[in-house]
Amino acid sequence: MSNQMSTTSALRRLQGIFAEHQQIAAINQPITTCSKPTNRSAQAIVDSFKKSSECPQFRRNRFHYETAVRQLTEAKHFSGIIDIIEHQKNYPDIRNEYFVVRLILLYGKVKMDHRARNLFDEMPQLNCPRTVFSFNALLEAYLKSEKYHKIGDLFRELPSKLSIEPDLVSYNTAIKAMCKASWLDSAVYLMDEIESRGIKPNIVTCNTLLNAFYENRRFSEADNLWDMMEKKNIIPNLCSFNIKLTSLVIANEVSKANQFFDEIVNKGFKPDAFSYNTMIKMGITQGNLEEVKMWYEKMLQNDCLPDHKPFTMLVTFACSSKDFDFALRLCKKAMKSHKAICNRIMQRVVDGLVEHSKIENAKELVKLAESCGSFRYELSLPSHN
């Protein structure tokens, strides 16, 4: 009985935290509207998906659903998204909570929080159990929809009504929503609240707050959180260190960033692509080409590879620095690794090579681009004397 009263009390306080901000947050909320199909190809995706859904093996593959929703979003065919998700109610999988959770999260991805809520409410009629798992999915859908203030309403209304006990994932989602809404003091308060209920924060909780502290330049509170993590034996992960590394780079603390990178390695962590990209960005901001090249080489030596955006950033910087040999190496590596660089920037490399009398290199790049099977490039060799 006392535990139930404690839970009710905590949920009321949580709802109160959100309610304090709700009036302001209700202003200028983004509205997602559904539009009619813009072309036949979008409707063809819907028709094909619904037909394929008849196959149980197809329905088990989450990737099919995510791809279709992404394509329909790009086509602004939002009614088609609703159509393919609602169509899933025709199959026995709809009685499986894991399957319904996938559908709720898909609605969240396209900011259709109201649709996610309707599906959650319909679960009993669909003979599907509702547990804290689907409750957390609903919270995540509202988080993805950027309806942060409504998460407090969900906490107030649903747990007691449905006899659902929120867990650490529930509270972590609420804390993340508060951080996204810049209600950082409330997020800290909530962490203290759940801890008083015997729910121990984990590394997800701490990383969410660390990121918010650094983004808001509240460095002393970030330091205090690191101390708290050590005292409570919450072991930081690479993400924790990357968050701090990013803050040092943003603050232009070059020396401290370099020292902290070494500290990450000395603690036994293997820096990932994000770590190296952060250091490369610092070199670019400093205009230090040799530093950028050093970090890029270290990245490759440690079996990491830039994605298409960092590759684009690197090639652009190499061109600006008039190092077209480096730009050529980057382009060749990107194509070999199936990472896209936009045609305009690739053409800039070709032009730069020609301008610096590296005609054969320019021809090589044009030929490689023509034979690239992953992306279609249309490069031309400029006239030269």
What is the fold's blueprint, element by element?
Blueprint: H1 2-25, H2 40-52, H3 56-59, H4 62-74, H5 78-87, H6 97-109, H7 113-122, H8 132-144, H9 148-162, H10 168-180, H11 184-196, H12 203-215, H13 219-231, H14 238-250, H15 254-266, H16 273-286, H17 289-301, H18 308-320, H19 324-336, H20 343-355, H21 359-371
Helix pairs in contact: 1-9, 1-11, 2-4, 2-5, 6-7, 6-8, 7-8, 8-9, 8-10, 9-10, 10-11, 10-12, 11-12, 12-13, 12-14, 14-15, 14-16, 16-17, 16-18, 18-19, 18-20, 19-20, 19-21, 20-21
Organism: Capsicum baccatum (Peruvian pepper)
Pfam families: PPR_2 (PF13041), PPR_3 (PF13812)
PPR repeats: 167-201, 202-236, 237-271, 272-306
Number of helices: 21
If you average the pLDDT, what whole number results?
90
How are helices and strands ordered from N to C? HHHHHHHHHHHHHHHHHHHHH
- Indicate the percent of residues in helices: over 70%
Q: Work out the strand percent.
A: under 5%
Uncertain ranges: 23-37
Estimated radius of gyration:
25 Å
Largest sheet: none
- Distance from N terminus to C terminus (CA atoms, Å) equals 89 Å
Number of strands: 0
Shape: flat
Oligomer: single chain
Structural class by secondary-structure content: mainly alpha
PPR repeats: 167-201, 202-236, 237-271, 272-306
Pfam family, one: PPR_2
Family: Belongs to the PPR family. P subfamily.
Organism: Capsicum baccatum
